[in-house]
């Protein structure tokens, strides 16, 4: 059997501790599967004294991950520190510069610096593996980078944030408000104390940016993603969606269009009888549409120490199975220098169906006025539902819910803004895009 | 750039012709992704004069695939002939003996001879890739063989036969009989003129046998699979399933139990609100349950020339990206010589819920007698539904539908056979196993 593969783990949080424990516990079976042992020779974390429930005897401790990357007796750096800059980035750069393979779960780092890091890895014939960075344990990077070689991908989309999907699922199943579900998610550890990054879609955007590059062979562009979170989704939207045969999911979508590549993260109506609509709770799902294979959907755990550690371990095992310096898998599916520049499609040109919910004053002629504004903007309606008048303290109002046939974002914006200036709209109109498989 | 990878394609049916066309059309992008060109240098098929709509100029033609495997100027044999024996097997054996990598879509060959072929490949340091053999375009082999390295898998199951799923879906959606749906499937080319192999579950069994070995690190055993097809599923079953919150799918299931490994293919009730229950038509789905990653489900096209060719191409690309003779991925996830013997769990020990539909004579005491037989066998009921009496020409009968809590196959068989000897059962009782994620 070949010599053991020596790895250094930077970051001993939930994922890092899981990984160390699993590699210790499964030494023998890993050696059988990989054709050689995987040995943790070095680790790095902030607090040396913390009890993580793992055995670190015989492992060299580094206080500084960059020091470990530069000087550790390692062939692979496993970076689990997180963050787009700072120690994570420096350690990864130092490892690649020195001829050490890198496995990382760091989506922010890749979304910001993925192309440069891929180029650095390729220059040295090193592997840069990052399965855990997108959709946790779901092997979506491997599918795009390896299985789909030769395919032209037209669209990738998915539920890539467990916190948001948990909240939306509970809102739907239990009729609770967004705020109550968020509190519950925080109590259960599914949401951070400051949940902004998850619920406003930034986390999904990071993952989407990486998938976009793999799908379309273009450079990563994380700043140009259209972003809309789930905090303004109400019970009214959820109920209206159900009535119309849809469920609401926070999707990240990247799509090739004539005008460029669309990257968008927003609450989305998906038809109730599709597979992705049934993905509930913290589970993630990623769909890939390609021209030879067709439609592929992968569903699984998108977070959690063990699930993420599993993806990291798969990446490490891939390196153990290949011989260092020999494998030629390009980190982003094709050599970094052959990636095309990212060409952004304008959001106003997005085409699709729309759900529009309006509260309007209940008077004669309003429906006709709304219909005229839709027609003025060449929007044709798939359905229109009027909900019973709501006679609160003020003037009576009613709710109008419309689902459009395919139209453009610009048309919808123009129509809604014309209606607002018409003066019969009460409150803020709700507009949710529809995505169909 | 490295030299082109030379491949020989044996078999130019739908998949072979797709593959040749795609490799020609996408030469450049494949070369970019793989770091070198993929070149078809040889092909073999029965009829040289047939117009397949593909360009074979400059390609060496072999009438005999074994001759091509032995003498073609090739580094990879792509075997698309099919069949467990004969030319397919001889060509693969000849290629491996000669130091040529093999990519195959041949599930029958692998189910029968997979271990021996894996051993032959490993002895020479060759790759034996067979993504297309199970669930067509869905990268389930790669997920099990690579992504899940280090995981202990407890169960794999899936919808792996598009013909059966198409028939069951149409029966459910349109209320048609099994026979009518089968005819329609034949008319549309989704079923063979002789559909036995598909509808009786043999095709699913071949795929399951391969997955079982990958999942549990055991030898392949195709002969020991419990087999039950879909031809006796009636509209009554479909409607009763819907009423109870289930859908009927033909599943292949492999499961680790205390008594050994269960391998079974049978019509199965799956809860309506699960993701796999929503997989309709010819689409396939495979679920893998493992201890670190958790539950992974992959959904996609399980057949068709292009989808299958995509999987074959992914396998070829993996070889192009590695350097021949260097990669150490064991064909079955671990070296063939380290596979454990297959230990079969007895079907009578299978534990799970059961759906039981009985037609009984409508007389006092029958329900009590049925309940007693269930209790005698320690079977507890989740639900029991009695359907309105059917007053045909003969004695009046009624239908009893029961869903059990988890019990054993033996208990159910004993209970049903006791009821049959009691004399109140009319016709043949229907028993369908329930599978829960």
UniProtKB/TrEMBL annotation, chains A, B:
GO terms (BP aspect): methionine biosynthetic process; threonine biosynthetic process
Binding site for NADP(+): 10-17
Keyword Oxidoreductase in record: yes
EC number: 1.1.1.3
InterPro entries hit by this protein: ACT-like_dom_sf, ACT_dom, Asp/hSer_DH_NAD-bd, HDH, HDH_cat, HDH_CS, NAD(P)-bd_dom_sf
Pathway assignment: Amino-acid biosynthesis; L-threonine biosynthesis; L-threonine from L-aspartate: step 3/5; Amino-acid biosynthesis; L-methionine biosynthesis via de novo pathway; L-homoserine from L-aspartate: step 3/3
Binding of NADPH, residues: 107
A Pfam family the protein falls into: Homoserine_dh
GO MF entry, a single one: NADP binding
Active-site residues, as the UniProt record annotates them: 207 (proton donor)
Annotated L-homoserine binding sites: 192
Source organism, top-level taxon: Bacteria
CDD domains hit by this protein: ACT_HSDH-Hom
ACT domain ranges (all copies): 355-434
Record keywords: Amino-acid biosynthesis, Methionine biosynthesis, NADP, Oxidoreductase, Threonine biosynthesis
Family assignment from sequence similarity: Belongs to the homoserine dehydrogenase family.
Protein name: Homoserine dehydrogenase
